[in-house]
Structures are given as C-alpha cells and as structure tokens.
Amino acid sequence: MPPPASSLAARLTNIFVSPGEVFDEVKAGAPAVKNWLVPVLILALVGAVSAFVIFSQPAMIQQIREQQAKAFDQQVKSGKMTQAQADQAMAVAEKFSGPAMLKITGSIGAVISSFAGVFWRALVLWLLGMLILKARFDYLKALEVAGLATMISVLGTVVTMLLTVIFGKATAPSLALLVGQFDPKNPVHLLAAAVNVFTFWQLGVMAAGLARLATSSFARAFASLLIVWLVLQTALILCSITIAHLVTMAK
Questions:
Q1: Has residue 103 been placed in a domain?
Q2: How far apart are CA 134 and CA 144, in angstroms?
Q3: Helix (H/G/I), strand (E/B), else coil: 227
Q4: In CA terms, which of 18, 50, 53, 119 is 20 to 30 Å from 102?
Q5: 4 occurs within a structural domain
Q6: DSSP character at residue 4
Q7: HEC per residue, 190-224
Q8: Is the Cβ–Cβ distance between 165 and 53 less than 8 Å?
Q9: CB distance 52 to 103 below 8 Å
Q10: Residues near 187 by beta carbon (within 8 Å), at least 6 away in sequence
Q11: Structural domain span for residue 35
Q12: Which residue pairs from 226-229 have beta carbons closer than 8 angstroms and sit at least 24 positions apart in sequence?
C-alpha cells in the first residue's frame, strides 16, 4: 500500500528529519512539478536575499577593495603598470564592483545557479541509477528528489549568510573555518572549503532518494554520489589552481 499523501509543506519540512518517508511518497505518487519547483524558487529567493545582505556589509566591500588594490599594487611594483594607470584601473574596478552591482549580479547568480543546480543533480541521480545501480526510473522522479533535497541548501545558505555577517568575511560552515589566511592557490585550502557540512548532508538526503527510486541500499547510493562529488571537486580544484596561476603569470 502506498504511503498516504502529505502536503507539500509537510514534505518540505520532513525532508530534514525523515527523508526516506518523503521519497517513499515521491516514488509511489504521480509526478508533481511542485516537488522540485517550489524548493528551487525558495532557494533562489533566499540566495538573492543572502547576496543583498552580504554585499550590504561594509566589511565585505572593504575586503574586495583591499584585494583589488593589492593586485594593482603588485602590478605597479613589477613595472607592468604605472601608478597613474593603477589608479585609473582601480576607479573603473570600483564602478563595476560597487555594492549595487554586486547585489544585482549576486542575486542573478543565485537564481541561475538554483535552477541549473537542480537539473544537474537530477541528471546525476538519473545516470547513476541507470548506469551504476542498474535501475530504471523517470528523470522527473530524479528531479523531484533533487528538488526536495534542495531544502538542505536553503538552510545552508541562511547559515552561510549569518556566519558572513557575524565574522565580517565570506564564511561557510566548512573546514575552511580552520584556515587562518585562505589562499585560492593552495589545494589544501580549496579542499577544506569544499568539505561543507551542508554539502554532505544534502548528499546523504539525495542518496536516500536515489536508494528509494533504484530499490537499492543507501550505502551503494551514497558511495556512488560520493565518488561523483570527489571527481567533480578534484576537477574544480585543479581548474581553480590553474586559473589562479594563469592570472598571476598574466600580471
């Protein structure tokens, strides 16, 4: 007998405490767009608000200004730019990285990443189910699982915003909190930033959904997702280090 249908509000709440029951209902029920669309809209809204709040902090704007000034100073010291050119470039940079522009671009980025992220995660779940767990289920079901699991990201975004406001710098609930001076060219620092509490929580919730859809064990589903995460994070870290070195060489 399929589990009794619950309200969307109940599913969005229960995803934090009993995701298995939520996904049992998703698997047994008819496809429902609201199961993924509403959580994504919530994440987009929270992300936009977070961008507005974070870039309203004078400390954050000051840090951005200091980083820009440091970069131009290095170019002046290396003889690649005169002080007058650096001052002019800094004035231009301030126009394009002012609080208003950062709020706009941050909000737009939050909306785009919210929708792109859920479709990507659903694709990963669907492919893992088909290729690794040898199960067949509709992509739309994977989209519902990915969408409902997005509520973990909503909470994570709120926590990140609060930490950033409290500490006066970009701060996420990750191992990067243990790093004194974060270096974007240091692979250890980048890995520490990737080890985020909410990332692993969301992986676990998605694994519970994948296990239900594929009629597989949670351990196999989680291991599959973890491997994909490790591969993607390794690629992102290598790309970040390469880009950072290229920028340094260009200067």
A1: yes
A2: 20
A3: helix
A4: 119
A5: no
A6: P
A7: HHHHHCEHHHHHHHHHHHHHHHHHHCCCHHHHHHH
A8: yes
A9: yes
A10: 237, 241
A11: 26-250
A12: 228/124, 228/128, 229/199, 229/203
- Picking from 102, 124, 87, 113, the residue whose alpha carbon sits closest to that of residue 51 is 102
pLDDT in tens, 141-184: 999 999 999 999 999 999 999 998 888 877 888 888 777 677 76
Q: Do the domain assignments include residue 151?
A: yes
What single letter denotes the amino acid at residue 237? I
Structure tokens at 53: 């709040």
Residue 229 predicted with pLDDT over 60: yes
Beta bridge partners of 196: 174
Reference 11, options 212, 20, 125; nearest CA is 20
Q: What is the pLDDT of residues 47-85, one digit of tens each?
A: 999 999 998 888 888 877 777 777 777 777 776 777 777
Split into its structural domains, the chain has a count of 1
Average pLDDT of every residue of the chain: 87
Q: What is the helix, strand, coil percentage profile of the chain, to 5?
A: 80, 0, 20
Residues recorded for the chain: 251
